[in-house]
């Protein structure tokens, strides 16, 4: 199985540190699982800037806890998070999740997150709208971002292109392959994600400038064979003679 050559880490640092998350997340979010859950819902299909803006507006209007949001007026939640996009769906989901966290977990997700990882994930995924990714965002804050590597669309794409997994691989398989591929430090995981987003782009991957092109299946399959200098000179001469 492929692993990231440690020699490439300074290269990733040099190329991608400039993209490192410029948006500052509210300080109390990572230590509070419910707030983390709300911001994860808000982050779906929008930019980080809009997500954080929507969260801050929500937090200005309401105390972000399950009891308050379960009883809040849906229209007011909707107005508060408008800048985050998909506000109709997201406001309903936030209210619904608040009610469920209140009813099923007595308003506190911390004891669930303290369960063994697999058990905690299963319990979290029983909540509506919580899939692998959202559950892992919550679990990562507890177990670390390498241990619970979140597989989003960028990671799915790059794992398949690199050939770490087959095209048909599912979430858990990709997660395991990435954990094996990357060293344990979280900084490298972040830089790798930035590389997936900015270099291994969905439509036009920039393979020629990618630090991983030498080990990448996609790049090998799609790159032109290297041109021999002598052959191209010869070709030119022949075509001139034909003219
Ligand atoms: S070489 Fe191309 S396809 Fe492979 S990881 Fe880099 S950008 Fe993605």
Instruction: For the record, give the distance between the C-alpha atoms at the N and C termini, rounded to a whole number.
Output: 52 Å
What share of the residues lie within helices? Answer: 55-70%
Q: What would the principal axes of the Cα set say about the shape?
A: globular
Summing up helix and strand content along with how strands pair, one would put the structural category as mainly alpha
CATH architecture of the largest domain: Orthogonal Bundle
Mean pLDDT: 90
Reported for the largest beta sheet, the result is: none
Structure characterization notes:
This protein is mainly alpha-helical and 243 residues long. The chain has 2 domains: 6-21 and 149-222, Endonuclease Iii, domain 2, CATH 1.10.1670; 33-143, Endonuclease III, domain 1. 59% of the residues lie in helices and 0% in strands. It contains 14 helices and no strands. Helix 1 (9-16) crosses helix 12 (186-198), helix 2 (33-43) crosses helix 3 (48-61) and helix 8 runs antiparallel to helix 9. The protein is globular. Iron/sulfur cluster binds next to helix 10 and helix 13.
Outline the fold blueprint.
Elements: H1 9-16, H2 33-43, H3 48-61, H4 66-71, H5 74-80, H6 87-105, H7 110-113, H8 117-124, H9 132-143, H10 153-162, H11 171-181, H12 186-198, H13 217-222, H14 229-242
The chain binds iron/sulfur cluster.
């Amino acid at each position: 199985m492929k692993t990231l050559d440690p020699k490439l880490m300074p290269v990733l640092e040099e190329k991608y540190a400039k993209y490192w998350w410029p948006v500052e997340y509210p300080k109390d979010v990572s230590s509070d699982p419910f707030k983390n859950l709300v911001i994860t819902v808000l982050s779906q299909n929008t930019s980080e800037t809009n997500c954080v803006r929507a969260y801050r507006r929500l937090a200005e209007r309401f105390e972000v806890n399950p009891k308050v949001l379960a009883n809040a007026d849906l229209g007011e939640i909707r107005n508060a998070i408008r800048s985050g996009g998909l506000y109709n769906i997201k406001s309903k989901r936030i209210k619904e999740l608040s009610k469920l966290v209140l009813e099923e977990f007595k308003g506190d997700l911390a004891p669930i997150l303290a369960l063994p990882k697999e058990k905690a994930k299963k319990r979290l995924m029983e909540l509506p709208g919580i899939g692998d990714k959202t559950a892992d965002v919550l679990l990562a804050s507890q177990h670390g971002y390498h241990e619970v590597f979140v597989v989003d669309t960028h990671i799915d794409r790059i794992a398949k292109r690199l050939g770490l997994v087959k095209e048909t691989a599912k979430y858990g398989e990709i997660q395991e392959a990435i954990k094996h591929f990357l060293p344990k430090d979280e900084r490298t995981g972040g830089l790798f994600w930035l590389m997936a987003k900015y270099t291994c782009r969905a439509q036009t991957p920039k393979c020629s400038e990618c630090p991983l092109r030498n080990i990448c299946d996609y790049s090998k399959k799609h790159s032109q064979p290297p041109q021999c200098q002598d052959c191209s000179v010869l070709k030119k001469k022949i075509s001139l003679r034909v003219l």
